[in-house]
Design brief:
The chain is of the alpha/beta class. It has a single domain, classed as Ribonuclease H-like superfamily/Ribonuclease H (Nucleotidyltransferase, domain 5). The protein has a 6-stranded mixed β-sheet with strand order 5-4-1-2-3-6. The longest helix has 20 residues. The protein is globular. The termini are far apart.
Length: about 230
């Protein structure tokens, strides 16, 4: 039977001149038949905690900690709800040396993120956050790159405040990015609520958040691309 998966894709500190050390691209994947129930459950958690805003990493603080802890617990409870991200140290990006633009590199990283995880016996719908700097022209190029000889059926922009699974992607990717910036000395890491969420993700994933995951790690998978080894 042909299964369909939705990928909810987001980006973090991916711009070339944002003074941040890492580029992160990531997604949450979920089987199509489970989407309605998963969305309902995530909204129920937010309602339980009287939260009416957008779920995002920047909203993690002591007052919202219990809700985000429950969201992380929920993510790790649902076996078919998976997260994957690639991380690049931007100091290693030397696009001019390779005769490519930063934008070209960005598209290559999205290809790395998604293409090698596809099962050609399934079909996929990809959703990207419209508030990011990717224009519709960029989306057309992503469609062209990712849809070429792959089982991708849909590739479109959505608004993150309307899509809770995209919001959950933001939370998980924000946790990884925050941890890396604190560890590298680019951030002091004074937010204890965020530190607690990071510790919970680390424990639940049973894997450090500063290195590439084992290939067998499907639930929470990180891939650090070392350009200096190329």
């Amino acid at each position: 039977m042909n299964r369909t998966y939705n990928f909810y894709c987001d980006e973090s500190t991916h711009l070339p001149n944002d003074s941040q050390p890492y580029m992160l691209l990531g997604y949450i994947s979920v089987p199509y038949p489970q989407i309605k129930q998963v969305k309902k459950n995530i909204r129920a958690i937010a309602t339980k905690h009287n939260f009416r805003g957008e779920l995002k990493w920047t909203n993690v603080h002591e007052a919202t900690l219990a809700m985000y802890q429950e969201l992380v617990d929920y993510f790790f409870t649902i076996s078919d709800l998976n997260f994957r991200a690639i991380i690049v140290d931007k100091s290693q990006i030397r696009d001019k040396d390779n005769g490519q633009s930063y934008e070209d590199f960005y598209f290559k990283m999205y290809y790395q993120l998604i293409h090698h995880q596809l099962d050609f016996s399934f079909t996929y719908n990809l959703f990207f956050d419209i508030k990011d700097t990717c224009s519709h022209k960029k989306l057309a190029k992503l469609k062209d790159i990712l849809s070429n000889t792959t089982p991708i059926r849909t590739c479109q922009f959505v608004r993150s405040h309307e899509v809770v699974l995209l919001q959950l992607t933001d939370v998980l990717m924000g946790a990884v990015n925050y941890h890396l910036r604190v560890k590298s000395g680019h951030l002091e890491g004074r937010n204890t609520a965020k530190s607690k969420i990071i510790a919970k993700i680390w424990k639940k994933s049973n894997s450090p958040l500063d290195r590439t995951s084992y290939k067998s790690a499907r639930k929470f998978n990180l891939f650090f691309i070392n350009l200096d080894n190329k």
